[in-house]
Each structure stands twice: as C-alpha cells, then as structure tokens.
C-alpha cells in the first residue's frame, strides 16, 4: 500500500498515533469500536489455514519434562532421553514447551503481574520511558521498528536488556516491575544455560560449546500487553516473524493466541500453566547450518484480553559485539558444507529490523 491510498495517509495517521504516547491501550481506553486502518492486515495474512483434521495429523508442539534432570538425581539415561526429545523438536518444529524446569511458579505469576501493573498504571508514569529505539535500557513502545512496521501490531511492549558483563541495574527499571524483572531474568538466565547445554549435546558436541560461543551473553526481554481487540479478525497481536536470537524463552498467560507455522499450517501453542515455550532463533539455525530450525510464528489478536506474555531473547543484538559467527566447524564436512555466510550480530540485527516485514525470512539473505 502506498503512503497515501484513497483517504488513508499512513504516515499522517502513524504520526498522530505516536504523538498520543498512549499506545494501543489508549485506543481501548478511549472505547473505540473499530480497529484503525494502521492496524489492518490483509485477510489472506490473517487466515488461519488450519486443517479440519488437525487432531488426526498430530500437529502438537512437543512438551518436554525437565524434571528428571533438575532434581539433582539425574542419571545418564534420563538426560539422554531429554536430549533426544529436544533434538527432535529443534530439528522438526523449532519449538517446544518445557515443564518442571525449577523456576518457581510464584516468580512466573509475579512477572505476569508486574508486566500488567506497568502497562495499566497512570500514563504520566509511563511516558518518560516511551521510545521507538534502544536508547535506554528500559523502553516502552508499540514497536521498536514502528516506522518499518506496516501494518502495526495490536499490542504495547516494554523492553529491557542486560548482559552477563553489564546486568540490569534496579534504578533503570520502573518501580511497578523492578524487583520481579531482576529476579525473573536471573532465573531465565539459569534455565537458558541448561537448555544451551542440552542443545549442544543434541548437536553431538560438548555441553559447553554454545555457551562458550557467548550464546548466553545477552538477554533482551520484551514484555507484551495485548489489549482486548474490538475486531480481532482485522489485525494481529504480533505479525509473522522469526526471532533475532540464538534461543527464545516465552512465558504466556492463559489466554493464548501464539501460533507456529508447521507444514504450511498455523498450529496453536496452547498455554500450559507453569510452562515455558522455547524456540530456536535465526542465529541458532545459522550456526547449526540448518540442523536446528528457526520457524515463523505469530500471535492472533483476541477479544478477551488483556493477554500478557514475556519473551526473553538470548542475543547480544543491542550491545556492541564484534564477534564473527558462522556455521560451527565441527558440524561441517564434504557432504555437509557451510550453507551460510559469516555475520556479526549487530550487522544482522540492523538488516533484520529494516527488512523483517518483507514477507520472507531475513535469514535467507545469508545463504
């Protein structure tokens, strides 16, 4: 669509929307009954394309129980079984859910409450954190690529990031969610470390290989608030994309809406109380030379909101990082040569943000 199509001037309406500094929640609070054109997706994009016999096709995102290897009494057989399941999920789905991961349920509930508390507090308290970039360690916005995004997603988000070398400081985080964001990020880093060990073993490598490649170095948290939508068939909560990360851990509430593209079908990822959704990111697909799959996913808009989700990306994309990555040498052979060019994470991220709405995976540019 051109900037100006009929009476719809996208840039003008976008500028007006941004200038309100109230986000999507502001639209809902104003009791709108129709979704503004800025948020309209083509009907073909929103189409569910889910087969009527989906139950017979067994299209269910794998669920993996980590309890056997988190109780301190693990045996080699139990660990090998978990590694085998993770290998299968990472290769064939790019997604799986983990249960019995040892992150306390109280912490999971508190982070959801903290995210909701921030988004539902008085606008004047939120405004100082409003930004359309990563100029601060804590930002509040509709999208960090709002001027590239067309159409806009039906959600508001706050973003915060830290690294093993430069962790988040309490004073950088709003009071509404300060303590729980720090506590939650510490638990997620620990779980991420375990998952990277298991993924390393699933590649047939030493358990510390991925961690030693600094896959765990940076953590970017996107804390989403999806307000109820008056016309959910016209828009999406999050448009189709793959993740700019090595690995992503997602906590979603009971409302649901997350879908994964699998065998050309959109498959629901149903909420499981206390579970994390785990997915492979673009960087992981690249360094594993297509052994593991970064797959497209999206979030449908809903009428029942607000929906809360917390996505944690293991990626140093917002930090200076001169490390050059490419397919892991131990995975290559004459029969399996490198399929990708080398890259740096900042270089990849700049292109990803500028091109992530072209309708194809940005990763394909590095083949």
UniProtKB/TrEMBL annotation:
| A single GO molecular function term of this UniProt record | dioxygenase activity
SUPFAM superfamilies given in the database record: Clavaminate synthase-like (SSF51197)
Q: Which cofactor(s) does the record list?
A: Fe cation
Q: Which UniProt keywords apply?
A: Iron, Metal-binding, Oxidoreductase
The transmembrane residues are: none
Q: Pfam families annotated for this entry?
A: 2OG-FeII_Oxy (PF03171), DIOX_N (PF14226)
Report the Gene3D superfamilies cross-referenced here.
Answer: B-lactam Antibiotic, Isopenicillin N Synthase, Chain (2.60.120.330)
Sequence similarity: Belongs to the iron/ascorbate-dependent oxidoreductase family.
Q: State the protein's name.
A: 1-aminocyclopropane-1-carboxylate oxidase-like protein 9
Write down the species.
Cardamine amara subsp. amara
């Amino acid at each position: 669509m051109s900037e100006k199509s009929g009476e719809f001037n996208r840039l003008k309406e976008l500028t007006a929307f941004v200038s309100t500094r109230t986000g999507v929640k502001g639209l809902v609070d104003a009791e709108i009954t129709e979704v503004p054109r800025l948020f309209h997706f083509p009907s073909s994009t929103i189409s569910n394309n889910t087969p009527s016999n989906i139950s017979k096709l067994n299209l269910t995102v794998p669920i993996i129980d980590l309890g056997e290897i988190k109780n301190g009494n693990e045996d080699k057989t139990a660990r090998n079984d978990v590694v085998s399941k993770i290998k299968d999920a990472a290769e064939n789905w790019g997604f799986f859910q983990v249960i019995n991961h040892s992150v306390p349920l109280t912490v999971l509930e508190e982070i959801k409450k903290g995210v909701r508390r921030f988004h539902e507090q008085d606008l004047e308290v939120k405004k100082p954190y409003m930004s359309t970039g990563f100029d601060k360690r804590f930002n509040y916005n509709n999208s960090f690529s709002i001027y590239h995004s067309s159409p806009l997603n039906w959600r508001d988000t706050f973003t915060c990031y830290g690294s093993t070398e430069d962790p988040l400081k309490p004073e950088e985080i709003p009071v509404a969610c300060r303590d729980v964001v720090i506590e939650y990020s510490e638990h997620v880093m620990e779980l991420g470390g375990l998952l990277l060990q298991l993924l390393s073993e699933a590649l047939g490598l030493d358990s510390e290989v991925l961690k030693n490649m600094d896959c765990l170095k940076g953590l970017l948290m996107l804390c989403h608030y999806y307000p109820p939508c008056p016309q959910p068939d016209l828009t999406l909560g999050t448009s189709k994309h793959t993740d700019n990360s090595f690995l992503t851990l997602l906590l979603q509430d009971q409302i649901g809406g997350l879908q994964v593209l699998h065998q050309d079908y959109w498959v629901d990822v149903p909420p499981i109380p206390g579970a994390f959704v785990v997915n492979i990111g673009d960087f992981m697909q690249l360094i594993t030379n297509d052994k593991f799959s970064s797959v497209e996913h999206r979030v449908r808009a809903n009428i029942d909101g607000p929906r809360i989700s917390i996505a944690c990306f293991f990626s140093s994309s917002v930090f200076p990082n001169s490390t050059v990555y490419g397919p892991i040498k131990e995975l290559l052979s004459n029969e399996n040569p490198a399929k990708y060019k080398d890259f740096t994470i900042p270089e990849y991220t700049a292109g990803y943000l500028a091109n992530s709405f072209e309708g194809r995976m940005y990763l394909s540019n590095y083949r």
